UniProtKB/TrEMBL annotation:
PANTHER family: ALIPHATIC SULFONATES-BINDING PROTEIN-RELATED (PTHR30024), TAURINE-BINDING PERIPLASMIC PROTEIN (PTHR30024:SF47)
Signal peptide (from-to): 1-28
Pfam families found in the cross-reference section: NMT1
Keywords of this entry: Signal
Family (UniProt): Belongs to the bacterial solute-binding protein SsuA/TauA family.
Name of the protein in question: ABC transporter substrate-binding protein
Keyword Phosphoprotein: no
Listed Gene3D superfamilies: Periplasmic binding protein-like II
SUPFAM superfamilies linked to this entry: Periplasmic binding protein-like II
Domain SsuA/THI5-like: 60-262
InterPro entries, sorted: SsuA/THI5
Subcellular location: Periplasm
Length: 350
């Protein structure tokens, strides 16, 4: 992955869109689609792990704007939450049918007995960097500093812990500061935090506001086999409404393919969803879709990468001590396999 920080350019400051956004309304007039008992579209409540949608999970916005949820007979309502941990708790508690989160809280929930399964994914390869000020030139320079995270066990904390561990350090050597998803860049620029794990579009924005901010560690280069983003649901929901689960997986897969193939069409959609300038998203597109190829186009959910991630979590102690996770329990491939069979396979990413 090569994600150089760009030269400054004007940035539109969009307001963070929090809370629930209705993403679809009509039943597609075709057979094999999901639907409610009264013949209307099946309602699916989806939770995402950041207060503002990122490029990494903007596939939901693309699926809505291009009509893929409608084609599948789904009415999707999205809520933006604080972290993957919050999303996982919401799905386990029955507040949402589908959750999107980094894999760590999902694995821990399954290890703790939660009856949920991963059935699809968003960006499943790491595309993030640890960004720091100009005077930080090594991981060791972070000792004693305030590092920005969401919360313990959530994605950014897990990635930060991974970076520290590779330098022979632990979280005891630094201080954690809890930061909302839309405040990492401002926290870095204002000196409130000394590091943050940023998505490409955030790194570009950070460099525009302070050219001294730079990537210290590229997580994809360090951990190319680590599994990142998952869509998961309560097992009972998948069993009781398999057409809705398949329809969601199909719409997301169509969105991924469009994101690779129709750059000019999807960039404005993603820019609106993330509240960022189209020029920033267009630059980030190259990182996501060309450098990392972060989104699967077919089934994905590779067993080797999932198994590696569980082992890595155990090494980092982000998995509960002694916990064992069975992939057959963690992953239900039936919805995504049925979706890809319906769509037909395409050439997979490198």
């Amino acid at each position: 992955m090569s994600a150089p920080l760009s030269a400054p350019r004007p940035v539109r400051r969009g307001l963070a869109i929090a809370g629930a956004l209705t993403l679809g309304a009509a039943l597609a007039a075709c057979s094999g689609t999901a639907g409610s008992d009264d013949g209307g579209p099946a309602e699916v409540r989806v939770a995402l792990p950041t207060s503002v949608t990122s490029f990494a999970n903007a596939d939901v916005a693309v699926a809505q704007e291009l009509g893929y949820f409608e084609d599948a007979g789904l009415q999707v309502e999205v809520s933006n939450l604080r972290s993957g941990t919050s999303v996982t708790n919401g799905v386990v508690g029955g507040e949402f049918e589908v959750g999107g989160a980094s894999i760590e809280p999902v694995i821990n929930a399954v290890a703790g007995g939660a009856e949920i399964s991963v059935f699809a994914s968003y960006a499943d390869r790491l595309e993030v960097e640890l960004v720091v000020p100009e005077d930080v030139q090594s991981v060791e320079d972070l000792a004693g500093k305030d590092l920005g995270i969401q919360e313990i066990g959530a994605f950014r904390e897990a990635m930060t812990r991974m970076v520290l561990e590779d330098a022979g350090m632990t979280q005891d050597d630094v201080s954690y500061v809890s930061v909302s998803a839309d405040a990492y860049v401002s926290g870095l620029v204002q000196g409130q935090i000394t590091s943050a794990v940023l998505h490409p579009e955030q790194s570009i924005q950070a460099a525009q506001e302070d050219p001294g901010l730079h990537p210290l560690v590229n997580l994809y280069e360090v951990e190319p086999d680590y599994f990142y983003g998952a869509y998961f649901a309560d097992n009972a929901w998948i069993e009781e409404d398999p057409e809705a689960a398949r329809g969601f997986a199909e719409a997301i897969t169509r969105a991924h393919r469009a994101m690779y193939e129709e750059r000019d069409r999807v960039v404005p959609i993603i820019a609106e969803a993330t509240s960022m300038e189209e020029s920033v998203i267009d630059e980030a597109w190259e990182v996501y879709m060309e450098d990392v190829q972060a989104f699967p186009q077919n089934v994905g959910l590779e067993e080797d990468r999932l198994r590696y991630t569980i082992e890595r979590m155990s090494q980092m102690e982000t998995l509960a001590p002694g916990a064992e996770v069975d992939l057959g329990t963690l992953v239900n491939r039936e919805p995504i396999e049925a979706a890809v069979q319906e769509l037909g396979e395409v050439q997979e990413r490198e």
